[in-house]
Amino acid sequence: MYISLDFTGILDKLIAMQRIFDTIGLTVSGTCAIHCLFAPVTVILFPIIGLTVLDEHTFHEIILYFILPCALMAFTMGCRKHKDYSVATLAVIGILLLISATVLHDMYSSELIRIITLLGSSLLIVSHVRNYFLCRKADCRHDHH
Q1: Residue 143 has what pLDDT?
Q2: Under 8 Å CB-to-CB from 142, ≥6 apart: which residues?
Q3: What is the rounded CA–CA span in Å between residue 133 and residue 89?
Q4: What's the CA gap between 49 and 74, in Å, rounded?
């Protein structure tokens, strides 16, 4: 008795999931970076137009709940595929910087925390972009003659 297992459908779904996690990770990291750049402006403008501003510390905690699982999934699946572990190294440094900025927010000036957060977000953005393109390159199925 011969049983044929076809994993191509599963592989295609995993590839799609990895791309989704990279896209979500890019979006959330980018949102974090934009928030840090424009936070001083929003603190001034939002009360004028009747909106409230979410506390920066609370915002960073909420964002981390999205960043951590997306990064874990995207980089785990991506590094298994393309074997470029510098992507994961940059991501880990970026995540550690974001966690540090969130945990140490009361110990340092808001300017320093903003710089640490921007650096961490930038490293994650670079990591997600690199992961995305390396995974696309690894999926290349050219017929070589």
Answers
A1: 41
A2: none
A3: 17
A4: 38
Alpha helices in 50-85 (DSSP H): 56-82
In the structure encoding, which two tokens stand for residue 39, read together?
């936070």
In terms of residues, how long is the chain?
Answer: 145
Task: Chunk the chain into consecutive blocks of 10 residues (it has 145) and report each block's average pLDDT, rounded to whole numbers.
Answer: 58 69 75 67 58 64 83 84 88 92 87 88 88 79 40
In one-letter notation, the amino acid at residue 25 is: G
Q: How far apart are CA 110 and CA 122, in angstroms?
A: 18
Q: Cβ(64)–Cβ(98) under 8 Å?
A: yes
Distances (CA, A) of 21 to 13, 37, 66: 12, 24, 10
Q: Please, is 50 exposed, middle or buried when counting C-beta atoms within 10 Å of its C-beta (0-12, 13-18, 19+)? A: exposed
* Contact by Cβ (8 Å): 75, 132: no
